[in-house]
Write a structure and sequence with these properties.
CATH class: Alpha Beta
Radius of gyration: 21 Å
Number of helices: 8
Number of domains: 1
CATH topology: Anthranilate synthase
Mean pLDDT: 91
Distance between the termini: 51 Å
Length: 427
């Protein structure tokens, strides 16, 4: 049996104070050189944190439930003085969860310091065990050193071998075993020295401001896909499925966007993903809005078919299990057809059988949550795991009937671009 554990035994309750502060500038620039630094940033807003006031690691099929139970106990016991009262103030945890039940570890961490920005409001939360730690000086830290001597090589499978896996999946789809499966591959980067994760984070946030740039426990990236946001009764989820690579020529890209919007293959893949999200959210919402047609989301390297699904929860229903925290909703949604396939159980089984690698926390939920249960959980896409001088990059593609293995490999290569480019040094 897998159980949630926190470091230490029977620690004193967390003591938290949140106050308004003057704008300290770019949030990512405040992060110290520490593997425990956490981040969740979009268009200059969000949360960063450092230090460790509490930690929970879980694994297995009960990883979400164990983490949720731990957070409920920790946040309920916390002594909080919150002078700001915004989502993300008070006691906050950052989390990252394994894609599969096995293998893979998941984590929730409560930093000692959290700095947040929402609109014109900036706040500082200090969190300690038994007492509030000293208030830090919110000044930019020295810029991290650029990675040196970065080289890239195949991960678990070569491109040719991965194409064969895709062809096998298409054959099984044609035979009627399933409708869609999302297959991923990895790429390994090696550097001359340990990589300071603040370097790629800053470049991802600058290049992809419309994505959510994140770092939790060595997993970092810039995801375009919001799995679920819960804020004061409103639930939203952004679904992405169906991708085409940009050329850099604006007029050509507009033509490609129109082609994507009419592509029967991509529209079919997108419909599967939207349906899986709407079906998973329906039991938790009193009303929902599911647009009939997707829009085209333009990112610097690719374009996606996108749909924003929205719903409303009823607070009174939380007590009977019909509604829950943002993490509970993320657990209900994971894995969606956008990262697993359709039917989900068959697709996940096929991933386990033929993909040929351990996804770890790639394509799992990543984000944050406060004591009220409000929070944001993205899908850990366009992501990588850093371990010293080694970085493992991930990319995945939705495979349906008619998918061409060579085209899917090209799409995966395009999805490596954000993290790959973020590891490049200056000049």
């Amino acid at each position: 049996m897998t159980t949630a554990t926190s470091e230490g035994t029977e620690p004193a309750p967390l003591v938290v104070r949140t106050v308004r502060v003057d704008d300290p500038g770019a949030l990512l620039a405040l992060l110290p050189d520490s593997p425990g630094a956490t981040a969740w940033i979009r268009r200059g807003e969000g949360l960063v944190g450092w230090g460790q006031a509490a930690l929970c690691r879980t694994a297995g099929a009960s990883r979400f439930a164990d983490a949720s139970r731990w957070w409920s106990e920790v946040s309920r016991a916390a002594v909080v003085r919150d002078e700001v009262h915004e989502p993300g103030t008070g006691v906050v945890c950052f989390g990252s969860f394994a894609f599969a039940d096995e293998p893979g570890d998941s984590v929730l961490v409560v930093p000692e310091v959290v700095v947040g920005r929402r609109g014109s409001t900036t706040w500082l939360s200090t969190i300690g065990v038994g007492s509030i730690p000293a208030v830090p000086d919110l000044a930019p830290t020295p810029e991290p050193a650029a990675p040196r001597g970065v080289t890239f090589g195949d991960g678990a499978l070569s491109g040719t071998a991965w194409e064969s896996v895709v062809a096998d999946a298409v054959r099984r789809i044609d035979e009627g075993a399933l409708e869609k499966v999302v297959l991923a591959r990895d790429l390994v980067a090696s550097a001359a020295d340990a990589i300071d994760v603040r370097w790629p984070l800053a470049r991802l946030a600058s290049t992809y401001p419309m994505c959510w740039t994140f770092h939790v426990d060595g997993l970092f990236g810039a995801t375009p896909e919001m799995l679920v946001r819960r804020e004061r009764g409103l639930v939203t989820s952004r679904v992405l499925a169906g991708t085409i690579r940009r050329t850099g020529d604006d007029s050509r890209d507009l033509t490609l966007a129109a082609t994507l919007a009419r592509s029967s293959k991509d529209l079919e893949e997108h419909e599967y993903a939207v349906r899986s999200v709407a079906d998973a959210l329906a039991p938790h919402c009193s009303s929902m809005n599911v647009p009939e047609s997707p829009f085209v989301l333009h990112l610097p390297n690719v374009m996606h078919l996108a749909t924003d699904v929205a719903g409303v929860t009823v607070p009174e229903r939380a007590a009977d299990g019909a509604s829950g925290t943002s993490l509970d909703l993320a657990a209900a949604l994971h894995p969606s057809a956008a990262v697993g396939g359709t039917p989900t159980d068959v697709a996940v089984g096929l991933i386990r059988e033929i993909e040929g690698m351990d996804r770890g926390r790639y394509a799992g939920p990543v984000g944050w949550m406060d004591a009220t249960g409000d929070g944001e959980w993205g899908i850990a896409l366009r992501s990588a795991e850093v371990d010293g001088s080694r970085v493992r990059l991930f990319a995945g593609c939705g495979i349906v009937a008619g998918s061409d293995p060579a085209a899917e490999l090209a799409e995966a290569q395009a999805k490596f671009v954000p993290v790959r480019d973020s590891l490049a040094g200056q000049g």
